[in-house]
Input
Amino acid sequence: MIEEEVLLPAQRFDVRDFALVAVVTNTAKPKALLIDPEKQPHTVKKGDLIGNRNGVLVDIRRNEIEILQFDSLNASERVVMKLHPELAAGLHIELK
Output
């Protein structure tokens, strides 16, 4: 029997389809808030899986995050997402 891989909600889209709308860095465990193309929020931290290309959040900085993702040949690509807090306007977001 072949088991299907269960994807987390943050793994359903390409990382470039997310918007980075908030970053909290003045804590021992920095977090970032992403909004997916369906306007759903995702709170992420370093080490979390993001995107549909086996992406891993490798760094959270004051105005950006960095994701390392891999293609089908296992070649890596670094993606830097810049902060765009204005994209959260009008959304009701509850942080957990």
About this structure: The chain has one domain: 9-88. The radius of gyration is 14 Å.
